[in-house]
Structure formats: structure tokens, C-alpha cells
Fold these 2 entries.
Entry 1:
Amino acid sequence: MAATDTPRTRITWDYAPAPESADHVRLRDTYGLFIGGAFVDPRDGQRVPSINPATEEPVAEVTFGGEADVAAAVAAARAAQPRWASLPGRERAKYLFRVARLIQERARELAIVESLDGGKPIRESRDVDIPLAAAHFFHYAGWADKLRHGIGGRDFSPYGVVGQVVPWNFPLLMAAWKLAPALACGNTAVLKPAETTPLTALLLAEICQEAEVPEGVVNIVPGDGATGAALVRSDIDKVAFTGSTAVGKDIQAALAGRGMGLTLELGGKSANVIFEDAAIDQAVEGIVQGIFFNQGHVCCAGSRLLIQESVADEVTAKLWDRMRLLRVGDPLDKNTDVGAINSAEQLERIEALVQAGVDEGAVRRSVACELPERGWWFAPTIFTEVAPAHRIAVEEIFGPVVSVLTFRTQAEAIEKANNSRYGLAAGIWTDKGSKAFEVARALKAGVIWQNTYNKFDPTAAFGGYKESGFGREGGAAGLRPYLRVS
Ligand code: NDP
């Protein structure tokens, strides 16, 4: 490790391990594709293992869909759609409520599988991902018979068949963000989970079976980028995508001229702005939550930390002290704060960008924690002396790495915060309500948190500006992208 501090083992107290037992989780050895209400063998797809990033061991075997599999899933969704759309809203709601309740019933199992398959700490899977996934189904179940109210009394119809591609950072939660509003609005869906994290989506398929969701309404086809590319080019009516800006641009180009619906939730380089009048200790907690939550694999992560010059030394010193207490390691340990990096590829991307930061002259400090020998890990890292043009201030790192910039005045804070091709989220830390509102109005970001960070709620709209994409998910605003409104 390049730049480190004294080992954390010098702290005189420590936690005993508190591992969550995975004994009661019963995964199948192998999962087929979920098409037309059943798990089926692939037509032209292939079987691959899904790997635990903390151990590099296989968790279960899954099936990646080929083009013919995608076509079969779309056909099943097409066949089911007219009847699904013709059900009264309260009937569709009944199924969504059942799915929500079954997610709650299987919450512990889902949380463990999410952590095994994706590397995130069990504390986050258990307390954030899974409860929020259930909450999204509950929320949109509530909207299913009130759609007209949600879109200002206008006439509407569902798109038809929607293709949904989700990333690996919040696998079940992103599936819920996509499926719940789509189904509430009378669409049927083909969902492609990410290559590295397909398992909770497959458990969701089992839940759909248990909830007796009509055959073909939900179809789940795991796969890699080629499966995603086949899905967005198939005979569907709308695409909803969350992932990198590069792939989002590729999808937008592929759909040009087809008159289809499209929503893109892409990357970010969100500014977390700390003013000198902020409650500093509280802000430090917010900074930690903003960038180290889910190993920094968060599209809205507060990865550009803007601190007012007068308190910059104090904030960075307190932040470093706090970072040194973060526990990195076994995702299934209930004390773990920072789990495994999701894949070897993502670790390589993080390492390359961190190296670029060092090469360009920023000052790196990484916590000197003992990292497990197997698996993919990255120690919490802070960069100071960062210039706005440095790659680590411009590009999405998507890892536990924060870049610190400073500012002197409110105007400079706004200018620096907006100096990004992205516009997904921002945080503002100040004691002054009027200042918070003034700054929030001036920031070009879809979500702005005041004196908090990374708070999610199914009733609140989420989405970006500029290269962070377009369309909103969550709340009433999340209905419109799934309806043709006249
Ligand atoms: P991708 O954008 O490649 O992955 C997102 C999803 O899109 C995955 O399901 C992926 O499949 C699928 N996909 C990949 N290529 C295509 C394609 N041509 N057409 C349709 N679907 C496709 O992100 P990566 O996993 O490659 O991560 C790269 C970077 O993207 C990260 O370092 C991070 O900066 C950013 N990112 C941002 C996210 C966000 O929430 N905004 C989420 C994930 C990544 P597969 O799983 O096989 O790749």
C-alpha cells in the first residue's frame, strides 16, 4: 500500500467477531432462466458460477441468457401483458403487496445472499437494501389503483413490455425500483440482473411464483453485457437502465428513432459540501456515510468532498480519525463497515484511478487495516491537495475513495460543485437554513440532501441531470416513465 498510517491494531479495544450464520440459506445448486413463470433451461445461453467476492468461491450456478432466451422472455412478457393491464389496479396491487410481504418474510435469507453474492456488509443488506426493496413494492402497490392521481389527472396507458437492466451495487433494491412501478402501471417486464450479482433477483423470481404473480408478468434473464445489449435491442416498448454512463450512451444510440420509452440512471461524481458553520462532528459522520457506504459502490456517493477552507484542516483530521475506525472485512460479520469490492474488474478500475491520483500529484492516505488474503478489497482512502482537473476529481471511482477540494465562498462552492459532467446528487452541511436552500437551488443535481447523506425513501424521486441520465424513479414521479401520458 502506498501511503498508510499507524496500524489500527494499536487501538486497545476491539470487537469480537459477530458473523451472521448462513446455515439456513438454501440456495439451489443451479438456477435456470425465469421465463413465463417457471425456471427453464437455456436455449442458447450458458451456465456459469456466481462468485462470492469475499472468498472468490462459487455461491451457486446460474444461467446467462443468449439472444434466443431473451426473445423467449420478451414473447412471454408480450403474451401476458394485455391481461395484466386489463386487471383493475387493486388486483395488480394485490400481487405487489404479496411480493412485498414475502420479501419481508424472507428478509434474513435475502440479506445473507445479497452479502454473499455482492460483498456488501450484512448490516447494510439487512437494514437498507432488503427493507427498502419491500418498501418499494408496498409503495407502488398503493399507487396501482390511483395512477390517474399520480400523473395529474391525465389519460394514460402502459408502455407494454419493458426491458430493465440493473447493476451490481444494489441488486435486489434496483430490481424493486424497476419492477414495482412498471408492474403497478400495467406493464410486464424482462429484467436482466448484473453479471456478478444475479442471485437475489432469482430469489425474487421464486417470490413471484409464491405470490402467484401471473405467468409471464415478470421474467428474469441473468447475463452479461451481451445479454443486456440483446434485451435493449429486442422487441420491447421501453428500456429502463441503471449503470455506467458509457453503456447508457450506447443504449440511447441503439434506441434512436425507435419511438420507445427510455429512462437512464447513470453515474455521478456528487459533491458533498461542508460549510464552516456546519455541525462538524455530524458532518464527518455524513461524509463517512456518503462515501464508505457500500464500499463507495454508489452512483450518488459523495465522492467529491468540498470543504470550506477555514475548517478544512479540522474536518480532514476528524475524518481521518473516523476512517481509521472503519472495520474492513468479512461482509457477513455484523460489525463490518466496509465489505468486499464487487469484482476483480472493479478493483482494477479503483486501483487505476487511485494511481492516477498519485501520479497527478494529489496526496493519498489509505487506512492501514489488515485485508483478507483472498477476495477483492480496498482500504478506505482519502486524497487531499486535489485539483479540480485531476482525474480523481472528475471521474467516477465507484470505490471507498474520497477526493477533498476546498473553497472560500458560497459562490465558489456552488461553482465547484457544479463543475462536473454529472448531476446526480449533492450534500449540503450548514447550520443556516436559508443558506442551505439558496445553495440547493443553485446546484444542478437531481437529489440534494441537507445535513444528511445517502438517505433513500420510496416516496422520494431519484434521478439525475446531465450525464447522470434522465427520468425519475420513486414516488409519484416514478410512475410517469412507465406510462404513455396523453
Ligand atoms: P455497466 O454499465 O456495464 O453495468 C450495468 C448493467 O448493464 C449490467 O447489468 C451490465 O451487465 C449491463 N450492460 C453492460 N453492457 C451492456 C450493453 N452494451 N447493453 C446493455 N446492458 C449492458 O457497469 P460496469 O459493471 O461495467 O461498471 C463500470 C463503471 O460503471 C463502474 O466503475 C461505475 O463507475 C459505473 N457504474 C455505475 C452504476 C450506477 O449505479 N450509476 C452502477 C454500476 C456501475 P454486466 O453485469 O454483464 O456488465
Entry 2:
Amino acid sequence: MNALDIKDLNVWFGEGLDRVDAVKGASFSVAQGESFGLVGESGSGKSTILRAITGLAPTWSGQIEIEGQALHGARRDRTFYKTVQMVFQDPYASLHPRHTVDQVLSETLQLHGMTDIDARVEKLLEDVGLGGRFRFRYPHQLSGGQRQRVAVARALAGEPDILLLDEPTSALDVSVQAEILNLLTDLRSEHGLTYLMVSHDLPVVGHMCDRLAVMKNGEIVEVMDKATLRSGAAQHAYSRELLGESLGA
Ligand code: ADP
Ligand code: MG
């Protein structure tokens, strides 16, 4: 059974003349434990695919299956959020400014029906390389990288199987991007996680992902594995163009 099966997914916003077809006929599968990338220029529909999966893009057609279970409409039940969690691009926007790290994590753990909250908060902070001394800090007392670590800890609180990562490092200083990517790589192997990761940065995806889909204007133009990406053997002209750009060619 795959972690994720997407078949002929269409996602649109608005109606009539205002309608924007953000994703058109996208199909791909992500195996359990796999790390799968979505790449493509800004506006190509990458985030919209993640948002459709989590229920944040209400109008879609086609099939979305999570661990063999088909999703219907925009409603997502509690089991879903125990299976799938999303990490957003901007840790500044995704954390409440008046909540301490402890509040953020304790409340999330409670929502997931967890017990032993105290011990779990400590463990989560340790898992993301922060440790207990960060526990009672507010977001403004943390660096961008530390905030994204808290956002990752929050995503892990319910012990999900699948993380949807939407450009998880692109709002961070270049110097801390690699740290967070390495953390994500370690967490995937330690927790047996499956990743669906959006990035406009091909080297990042080449480093982090086993396979990737190249998107253009809402469509997937090519799915390839890491070896194909690295050897520059992409089939589609657009993939080669994107690849050439990112290699500075
Ligand atoms: P990417 O993540 O690849 O940069 P997005 O998935 O955010 O692209 O956007 C894909 C397209 O859908 C863009 O044309 C964008 O303007 C449009 N879009 C995204 N969200 C909305 C929305 N809430 N309402 C209307 N159009 C949207
Ligand atoms: Mg996006």
C-alpha cells in the first residue's frame, strides 16, 4: 500500500470568468517511507496540491488516497491529522506570537489525545535538536531556524506517518537552511516518515528526495527519480530547462 495516491487531481479557485485552474490532471504516488518532491516555478500549483490533500483547497476533483483511504470533499477527520501533518514555509506566520513553545506543543499533544504531556514536550524538543531550555520561550525569542524546529516538533506531536513540507527552508537564512534539511533527513529515518516536499530549488530536492515531479502551469510534466535528476537525463524539455537553470547552465 502506498502512503499517498493522487489520480487525475484537478483543483480550481473561483467560478466562471474568475476561475483559476491551479492543478490540472495531476497523478503520482508516494510509497511508504519515500521522500517525493514537487518542483516547478512559482505559481505552477505545487502548494495547491498540498493544500488539497490537507483540506485547505475545497474545490477539487479526482482521487486522493491516504494509506489506501479515499478522501471526500474538504472534511478531514481526526485520524487524518494523526496520519498527515503539514509544515509551512514561514515559521514566523505559523506560530502564535503570544504562545510559548510549551503552550504550542502541549496544546497540540492534547488535541491528539496524548497523555504524559510533560515528557512528550521534552522528547519533541529533543527530537528537533532544541532541548528543554527553549521550552518557555516565545516565538520572538527564537531565531528563524529555531522557530521552524518548533513548527516541525508541532507537526510530529501526533506521531504522523506523512509530512507535507511546503518550502520548509525557503524563508530561512541560507546559513540555516542546510541545518533544517539535515534535521528533516534524520527525522525521516528515525521516525520512518514519508515526505511530500515542495521546493523551487532543484538541488534541495535532489538532496532530499528519492523521486520528484516537475510541474508547469498546473500540470505534472514529468516524474523522475533522483538518479535521472543528477545525471541530467530528464526527458521533458521543460525539466531540462529548469535543471539547466539550477545548475547555472
Ligand atoms: P506554487 O506553490 O507552485 O507557487 P500555488 O499552488 O500557490 O503555486 O498557485 C497555483 C495557482 O493557483 C496560481 O496561479 C495562484 O495564483 C492560484 N491560487 C492559489 N491559491 C489561490 C486562491 N486561494 N485563490 C485564487 N487563486 C489561487
Ligand atoms: Mg507555493
